Amino acid sequence: MGQVPITFIRQVLALISYTPLLDDPKFPEDVKKRAREILAGCRGGSVGSYTDSPGIEIIRKHVAEYIQRRDGGIPCDWQDVVLSAGASDGIKAVMKLLINEEGGKKPGVMVPIPQYPLYSATIAEFNMSLAGYYLNEEKNWGLDIKELERSISEAKKTTNVRAIVIINPGNPTGQVLSRENIEEIIKFAYKEKLIIFADEVYQDNVYAEGSKFHSFKKVLTELGEPYSKMELASFMSCSKGYMGECGLRGGYAEVINLCPNVKAMYLKSISAMLCPTVLGQAVMDCVVAPPKEGEPSYATWKKEKDSVLKSLNERAKLVADTFNSIDGISCNTVQGAMYAFPQIKLPAKAIEAAKAKGQAPDAYYAFELLERTGICIVPGSGFGQKPGTYHFRTTILPQTEKLREMLEGFKKFHTEFVKEHQ
Amino acid sequence: MGQVPITFIRQVLALISYTPLLDDPKFPEDVKKRAREILAGCRGGSVGSYTDSPGIEIIRKHVAEYIQRRDGGIPCDWQDVVLSAGASDGIKAVMKLLINEEGGKKPGVMVPIPQYPLYSATIAEFNMSLAGYYLNEEKNWGLDIKELERSISEAKKTTNVRAIVIINPGNPTGQVLSRENIEEIIKFAYKEKLIIFADEVYQDNVYAEGSKFHSFKKVLTELGEPYSKMELASFMSCSKGYMGECGLRGGYAEVINLCPNVKAMYLKSISAMLCPTVLGQAVMDCVVAPPKEGEPSYATWKKEKDSVLKSLNERAKLVADTFNSIDGISCNTVQGAMYAFPQIKLPAKAIEAAKAKGQAPDAYYAFELLERTGICIVPGSGFGQKPGTYHFRTTILPQTEKLREMLEGFKKFHTEFVKEHQ
């Protein structure tokens, strides 16, 4: 992600990889303690050994404690926690459980539009059917229950809708769902007997004032029965948050209320792939159980974490404000995650020019931008958007100075582009 | 695997994880050089960044150079090399390309019996059909072309056979295929238009005198056209060999002669999973490009490698010899890999006792062994075996003293078990 690595995480990795460093006085005691604890969970005391397929027990327990803390004490059973090589791996492993056809109908999965393409790719790979529901751009990309109802009644004609995916905070849309909205979604899912896939990998990335992350697990539990007994899978990753350790492939799924037979099948199915990378598991451990106040690594960790999140926060505002200052572009508040998904009004002449080139209008716009300025955005058509509207996804990840420069170049390009196509 | 880690690999991991160690005089210069080289291939110089989905370019190039060296100079294009999170991940990604049904028939894959269960699990997951062929126990688990022909003509009745899996050196059977046998298999695959899946993860594990590892790539290329133009995927892993770094999840596939459209689909399909773990990629790099003579880490690396392989070699003999010394057990020479798959003659009374318990006879035997001695073997029925024969898989991995102890306990158990069931 281009951000500076968190020292605590990287020191633990170094020590568990090369254990003679455990005796090196350079490393703080809490790093050593953590490294020893992880190694004690590894067979033969080595990260080179296979672990249990759902991950190392002590790390699963740390994850469960993290979830319990996050959700204000609502219990989490560590046996419901399954570690994975990044969230993608975890999502695919759970979605695989839906593959079976019933009554000659393909299983269907409700997915937001715009969506993160992992979902469409996985659903296609598993020969399932995607039932898209549009996020409401006017309500800062919230979920309209009416739209969910329209989508499912359309999908039911041909498919057996089994699950709903919600990405919160949103990718590529950057919204953070309100508690009320989450309650409505849970009730909708209950009525329709849907398993909820809560993609919550951006749970640490909430910026906007008044926005707060509410986990589906917490809301569903607090709603009480019958909702608290619903099947829910929630996913987390080491690739986002303040750590951004994408390449190390750490993640977990918490899967609750699964029918015991299905759970057994789930655990059996992941065992074919042996185990997620032990070093990725270790990163997850450091993320869910960071240094505590009073421990030697705490101050550095806190400083590094706060600095990354503060900067992302500033950039979230900078990006939305700058786009909104450009005529013909409108951008919702980036409440969370790492992206903005602004809408662009394209002149009729630009749409014609795109057609002549055999390109989607937003792809044409993106290619022009890339060629003229070197700035790379992803056209909205890659994520899905309401017909007749045009968007693009951009990220708030570049460092502030680079981002400022990029936004200036963008503004200049857009003005010229519109002028040329008037 | 319980073996001592290779210092060079672990030092490189430590340095790329925590880069301030690059300035630590404790680490040899070649380790630092390698770490810098890998980091230079990472975006932003960090192992925390996503890499290209097929892996870091410099590592793919090192793999290609390794393959070229291994195969006596036969060229390897680094763009045919795709890194993966262990061999299993690589095998699944290539097998996925066969999923499409044609003419209402499921795609079929020929798989040895006994086999490594990843194949049966993957084929079931992808809703394909497994066409088993029996390995010839009398010919030290070689492949009989007549048996391949029997198997495919049987399978063709209901499926569209697309591929053949060969595990060489064999898991669980420990054979190393002769060059002649490989030539026959290639010609058979050519005649039947099959893609060859060469599971060659044990290529460094060859022990028996007169046995030598021949890669399918080399033999197929040396056979010349038309064979040299056949589609072949070969798989390698960091989990075996002398390094045994299972938990770090490194591996690669070399896929040659693939139709360009299929290759494009292959690369697109792996991109949904972003990238294999960067630290696993780094381990693969150290395996394919170990320290060279004259470099500071060479002597230690050589000593560690030789010591592991020498010990495995001794244990391979010890295991086969001991089993052959037990009345009612016969074991082929463990020519390679890490396992023995001995045959046991079970008394009729034992078979009855198993039936009464609702267990497979070899499973009954294995449970009795476990309960009475604590020794764990895997019954042959888990891997497949000719009807009416009984086997078990055991490994040569425990350290020699432990292995000796285990074999003694085994011998005592077997004698008692047979006496009781006479």
Automatic annotation (TrEMBL), chains A, B:
Keyword Calcium: no
EC category name: transferase
Keywords of the record: Aminotransferase, Pyridoxal phosphate, Transferase
Reaction catalysis annotation: L-alanine + 2-oxoglutarate = pyruvate + L-glutamate
Signal peptide: none
Alphabetized GO MF terms: L-alanine:2-oxoglutarate aminotransferase activity; pyridoxal phosphate binding
Domain Aminotransferase class I/classII large: 14-408
Gene3D superfamilies: 1.10.287.1970, Aspartate Aminotransferase, domain 1, Type I PLP-dependent aspartate aminotransferase-like (Major domain)
Listed cofactors: pyridoxal 5'-phosphate
Pathway(s) it belongs to: Amino-acid degradation; L-alanine degradation via transaminase pathway; pyruvate from L-alanine: step 1/1
E.C. code: 2.6.1.2
Entries under Pfam families matching the protein: Aminotran_1_2
Top-rank lineage group of the source organism: Eukaryota
CDD domains reported for this sequence: AAT_like (cd00609)
Keyword DNA-binding tagged: no
PANTHER family documented for this protein: ALANINE AMINOTRANSFERASE, ALANINE TRANSAMINASE
Subunit structure: Homodimer.
Family: Belongs to the class-I pyridoxal-phosphate-dependent aminotransferase family. Alanine aminotransferase subfamily.
Name the record gives this protein: alanine transaminase
